[in-house]
Amino acid sequence: MLTGLLGTAAIPWPRELRAEGGNAASDLPLPDTHWNAAVPTGLVPQKLPLLRLSDRPIVLETPRPFFESLLTPNAAFFVRYHLDVIPNAIDLSAWRLSVGGNVSRPLHFSFSQLLSQFEPVSVVAVNQCTGNSRSRFFPRVAGTQWGNGGMSNARWTGVRLMDLLNRAGLRSHTVALRFQGLDSGRGAEGTPSHAYSKSLDPEDPILQDCLIAYQMNGEPLPMLNGFPVRLIVPGRFSTCWIKHLSWIEALTEPDQSHWMMNAYRLPKKPHYSTTPEEVALGKLSTIPASHAPMPVRSFFVLPDGSSKLVVRLPIEIKGIAFSGSGGIRQVEVSTDGGRSWRLARLDPDLGPYSFRGWRLAWTPRQPGRVELCCRATDGKGNVQPMEPIWNPGGYAWNVVETQTVFVGESA
Amino acid sequence: MECRRNADRFRGGVRLSAHLFRSIAVAVVCLTLYAGVDSALADSDGLSEAGVYALDSTGLIMPVSPFPGNATSTYSVGAYPLAPTPLVRGSGQELVESYCSICHSVTLIGAQPHFPPELWKKEVDKMIHLGAPIPTEMVGQIVDYLQKHYGPLPEGNSSSVPPSKPNP
Fold it and tell me: Which InterPro entries does the UniProt entry name for this protein (chain B) (predicted)?
């Protein structure tokens, strides 16, 4: 199953490099072209071997073959922490989920109360790191150098966030809802390296779809995916899917924390794309990544380029697609490097926030190198861009994927 | 009968492994990181243990969760494995290890692309903003080390070539 871990996915070189024949910018590190980050695997509790981007804090990427399943197995679900004081043990007799701040009735819920007092609700939703595919950016940017595996999909079951908020009664003049979990860092109290929390706008329509999940694919959450409960914000990046969620606070002042004001900001521009020059001018307007729907993406799962295809032997090209804006309307596939496109057949729909499977029968007609491209359109008509995007955080990459395959002779 | 003996041997094996596990755990206890969980224990937030890691460079301390063996309300997964990629040898290395490792493994340093020098300066400034307690007089040495060993590669090398030999 794990063949093709390092199958290459050629991506278009930035135009400057092509123009200069690839030499002029040789002092700048080039984008990584591996589908998954080219790092060794590591084993952590409750997980299969995953690609270890960092051992402390724990950051693990899901290897490509696991995306053959639309629901990512819990043991293969990617992991990303900012801070390293990650829970090793949690006592549910003492653990409570608190709803406080500017509310009429501050409340504390035990795990069993969450199970017994609220209607269970399920949603299938993609969890994707804002920086997924960061290694594609050119010029390269600092941060976790994700390949494409900083994403996973699961069926989440739990309590509606609104059910909790309605019971607590949000009071007027609430301008932000802040979420925080049990994980923390070793920095001094009051510094960003001590605590990670994120806020959502109380007027944001996505709140209606948010869950506090105690189940993931019908099982308890793995510790590293947020046991005992995690905030699910369908269609949004995982930066606001707070793990080990324990505190919900209604704020009357905007959340001015580093994690809202400095980190995870997207340029307020088409495709969230800007240039280093524009950033240097210092006038770039930005929005919090947690307030923006995830842009539409699509990926090849098979073929993965790890072995040759045989001329005139039919195969099925298979992939996944998703978007934070109304699900997937169509996926087009090119077998000639983007010159012509054919519509792929979409698999059954697991909901607008899920991976959507797609497939296309294809018979390679002649030996040689072939560039496969896939391009998705979402429910709101957004289409993946063909040209690379760039922003200083390395966020929201959604450029059309290219998969190089080699077709061999059969006689 | 044969089956029972096999089962006994199996259980014996498990005991031995558990013993081995404990011995190694004791041997590396000085390398194990503990967060201040004493206060957490006293808190009502249910956090019994957090930020516990154990060195896993040998692969002997397998990060397999301990078999729960009880039905209490505490859910534990054991220590998280540490497997840091060593830093390149050079002047300033110890400073980088001391200050950067407070919050994160040095694996993250080697995992970055070979940034232009000014970007390493920016990264160190960012970490100080995040709370890294680096004394002002040490900043220069740390930045120098990162720029020298994790900066641009010598001309003619492609970005896929490792910079130089890491510590054993």
Answer: Cyt_c-like_dom_sf (IPR036909)
Tracing tokens 């590591």 back to the chain, one arrives at: A42
**pLDDT tens-digit map of A204-226:** 999 999 999 999 999 999 999 99
Domain tally, chain B? 2
**Which of A82, A186, A225 is the best substitution to test chain B (most B C-beta atoms within 10 A)?**
A186
Range of the domain at A324: 297-408
Q: Which residue has the tokens 């080699």?
A: A406
What residues of chain B lie within 8 A of the CB of A42, using their CB? 63, 81, 83
Q: How far apart are CA A167 and CA A117, in angstroms?
A: 11
Domain holding A376: CATH number?
2.60.40.650
Task: Flag whether residue A45 sits within 8 Å of chain B, measured between CB atoms.
Answer: yes
Burial class (CB in 10 A: 0-12, 13-18, 19+), B2: exposed
Of B42, B66, B82, the one marking the end of a domain is B82
Query: Is the pTM for the entire model greater than 0.90?
Result: no
The interface residues of chain A toward chain B in range 160-199, judged by CB-CB distance below 8 A, are: 182-188, 191-194
Q: How far apart are the first and last CA of chain A?
A: 28
- Buried b / exposed e over B54-91, threshold 16 CB at 10 Å, is bbbeeeebebebeeeeeeebbbbbbbbbbbbbebbeee
